[in-house]
């Protein structure tokens, strides 16, 4: 697996840690695919249920909110269970839950079934927080964590590039690719024209579940010595592959780190060791110890950040797909409505290119910015880029074509830059609160996921309604300008956060100390 070698050489992690992070990336990859593939065709999917155009944004907001409702109801439990029963079982259950929700989504026949599928997807998956927890378990050095926590957002960026392409290209294949099927298209695509993207994404989920079961290590200290049947099978599979690899004269360094914890010869030593009873120091602290002044500030910012960023991500494809308003109905500079009238394929490519820019920026820019200016200063700067972007969006509907796409590109690049900085920086601050032993890291990330779910639940619902009302009343600026005001308020908690525990903050590295 070349990816783990790239991580090891670029960011100086050990071979074992690099291999495990690569596997976690694969497990993470399918979930944002499932989330983002629906964005290009959600407008057309809801419209296919004979929904009035002016109400589509409202129902789209509820569809997005349903996933977050499920996350809110279950993510704290998933995080707590990950601290008690282990990280790996919860990850595998989460992947299975996403798979079930995708199958239900593929065969939805009305908006209520669609909402139920998304709700189930949120309920059965707590992997957003758990996978971050596992990265924090694997990489404990604070400086290395600054880099490590950019990897999962980079995976999100890659998936958010591929997901919209899959969704835009494969949705309603009979209408979008009529020449491919001839006069007798498959009955499946006639009855369920939007089923193909979720079914294709399901294959990625099965791939992630298989690799996770066979090769991912448990990272919860109290459960490390527990027998892992999946790893035992993986070790046997590795032995077969390694034997053939050696017979072909290839270098075994490519596959060895997937399974070995050390450079020793016994690849199965970890999983066949006699389980040991955890000592008193392994006991999980009280759940209430998670809530401090600093953690509350971090949770508040993270929740508001999730609220306005997902609201934007939800509204933008609807706005791009919405029909164009004639100039006779416009009373500039404030009274106008309408969108850009783009097709699902075009919207998919716009979102895909944005995801590509996000991925490149995540890998190239974040750690350089954080090292140069510190985590806190970088976060404060990024927090106030968002309102600048949001204010300009509605005017895309009324400006000339040549300038329209230039402004859209600028808005998306600036918003991407803000997102590249703010999410990993916020995760670094939240995980730093776990302290050196990291015993509450799963709970911290579970609560962060739940708080973000509240934002993602409330945001799309409110702004979907505001978008609908704005279009009906002729004031397209209403949802976007209120979103900008919310982003301004969201930046306030950043002014009061510190890096880690108060006693740790005093011992930060120079660049981090300066960032405060």
TrEMBL record:
<feature type="transmembrane region" description="Helical">
    <location>
        <begin position="478"/>
        <end position="499"/>
    </location>
</feature>
<feature type="region of interest" description="Disordered">
    <location>
        <begin position="253"/>
        <end position="283"/>
    </location>
</feature>
<dbReference type="GO" id="GO:0022857">
    <property type="term" value="F:transmembrane transporter activity"/>
</dbReference>
<feature type="transmembrane region" description="Helical">
    <location>
        <begin position="191"/>
        <end position="216"/>
    </location>
</feature>
<feature type="transmembrane region" description="Helical">
    <location>
        <begin position="21"/>
        <end position="44"/>
    </location>
</feature>
<keyword id="KW-0812">Transmembrane</keyword>
<feature type="compositionally biased region" description="Polar residues">
    <location>
        <begin position="260"/>
        <end position="283"/>
    </location>
</feature>
<feature type="transmembrane region" description="Helical">
    <location>
        <begin position="299"/>
        <end position="320"/>
    </location>
</feature>
<feature type="transmembrane region" description="Helical">
    <location>
        <begin position="340"/>
        <end position="366"/>
    </location>
</feature>
<feature type="transmembrane region" description="Helical">
    <location>
        <begin position="446"/>
        <end position="466"/>
    </location>
</feature>
<feature type="transmembrane region" description="Helical">
    <location>
        <begin position="409"/>
        <end position="434"/>
    </location>
</feature>
<dbReference type="InterPro" id="IPR020846">
    <property type="entry name" value="MFS_dom"/>
</dbReference>
<dbReference type="InterPro" id="IPR001958">
    <property type="entry name" value="Tet-R_TetA/multi-R_MdtG-like"/>
</dbReference>
<protein>
    <submittedName>
        <fullName>MFS general substrate transporter</fullName>
    </submittedName>
</protein>
<dbReference type="InterPro" id="IPR011701">
    <property type="entry name" value="MFS"/>
</dbReference>
<feature type="transmembrane region" description="Helical">
    <location>
        <begin position="378"/>
        <end position="403"/>
    </location>
</feature>
<dbReference type="InterPro" id="IPR036259">
    <property type="entry name" value="MFS_trans_sf"/>
</dbReference>
<feature type="transmembrane region" description="Helical">
    <location>
        <begin position="115"/>
        <end position="135"/>
    </location>
</feature>
<keyword id="KW-1133">Transmembrane helix</keyword>
<keyword id="KW-0472">Membrane</keyword>
<feature type="transmembrane region" description="Helical">
    <location>
        <begin position="147"/>
        <end position="171"/>
    </location>
</feature>
<dbReference type="Pfam" id="PF07690">
    <property type="entry name" value="MFS_1"/>
</dbReference>
<dbReference type="GO" id="GO:0016020">
    <property type="term" value="C:membrane"/>
</dbReference>
<feature type="domain" description="Major facilitator superfamily (MFS) profile">
    <location>
        <begin position="20"/>
        <end position="502"/>
    </location>
</feature>
<feature type="transmembrane region" description="Helical">
    <location>
        <begin position="90"/>
        <end position="109"/>
    </location>
</feature>
<keyword id="KW-0813">Transport</keyword>
<feature type="transmembrane region" description="Helical">
    <location>
        <begin position="56"/>
        <end position="78"/>
    </location>
</feature>
């Amino acid at each position: 697996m070349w990816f783990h070698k790239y991580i090891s050489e670029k960011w100086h992690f050990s071979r074992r840690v690099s291999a495990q992070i690569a596997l976690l990336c694969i497990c993470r990859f399918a979930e944002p695919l499932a989330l983002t593939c629906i964005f290009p065709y959600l407008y057309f999917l809801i419209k296919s249920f004979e929904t009035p155009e002016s109400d589509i944004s409202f129902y789209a907001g509820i569809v997005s909110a349903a996933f977050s409702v499920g996350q809110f109801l279950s993510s704290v439990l998933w995080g707590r269970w990950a601290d008690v029963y282990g990280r790996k079982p919860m990850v595998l259950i989460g992947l299975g839950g996403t798979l079930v929700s995708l199958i239900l989504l593929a065969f939805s026949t009305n908006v209520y079934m669609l909402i139920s599928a998304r709700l189930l997807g949120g309920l059965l998956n707590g992997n957003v927080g758990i996978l971050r927890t596992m990265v924090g378990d694997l990489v404990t050095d604070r400086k290395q964590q600054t880099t490590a926590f950019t990897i999962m957002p980079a995976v999100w960026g890659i998936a958010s590039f591929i997901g919209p392409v899959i969704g835009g290209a494969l949705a309603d294949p009979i209408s979008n690719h009529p020449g491919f099927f001839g006069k007798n298209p498959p009955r499946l695509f006639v009855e369920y024209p939007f089923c193909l993207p979720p079914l294709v994404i399901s294959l990625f989920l099965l791939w992630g579940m298989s690799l996770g079961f066979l090769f991912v290590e448990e990272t919860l200290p109290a459960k490390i010595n527990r027998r892992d049947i999946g790893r035992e099978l993986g070790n046997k599979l590795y032995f077969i592959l390694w034997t053939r690899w050696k017979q072909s004269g290839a270098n075994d360094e490519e596959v060895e780190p997937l399974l070995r914890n050390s450079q020793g010869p016994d690849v199965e030593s970890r999983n066949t060791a006699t389980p040991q009873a955890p000592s008193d120091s392994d006991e999980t602290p009280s759940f209430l110890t998670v809530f401090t002044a600093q953690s509350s500030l971090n949770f508040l910012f993270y929740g508001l950040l999730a609220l306005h960023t997902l609201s934007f991500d939800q509204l933008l494809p609807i706005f791009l797909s919405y029909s164009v308003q004639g100039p006779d109905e416009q009373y500039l500079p404030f009274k106008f409505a309408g969108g850009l009238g783009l097709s699902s394929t075009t919207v998919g490519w716009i979102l895909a290119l944005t995801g590509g820019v996000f991925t490149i920026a995540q890998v190239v820019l974040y750690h350089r910015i954080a090292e140069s200016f510190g985590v806190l200063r970088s976060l404060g700067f990024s927090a106030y880029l968002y309102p600048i972007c949001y204010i300009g969006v509605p005017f895309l509907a009324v400006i000339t074509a040549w300038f329209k796409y230039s402004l859209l590109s600028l808005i998306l690049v600036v918003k991407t830059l803000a997102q590249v900085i703010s999410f990993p920086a916020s995760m670094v601050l939240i995980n730093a609160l776990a302290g050196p032993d990291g015993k509450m890291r799963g709970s911290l990330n579970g609560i962060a996921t739940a708080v973000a779910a509240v934002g993602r639940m409330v945001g799309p619902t409110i702004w979907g309604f505001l978008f609908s009302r704005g279009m009906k009343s002729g004031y397209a600026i209403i949802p976007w300008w209120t979103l900008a005001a919310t982003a301004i308020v969201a930046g306030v908690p950043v002014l009061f956060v510190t890096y880690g525990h108060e006693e740790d903050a005093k011992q930060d590295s120079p660049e981090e100390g300066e960032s405060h």
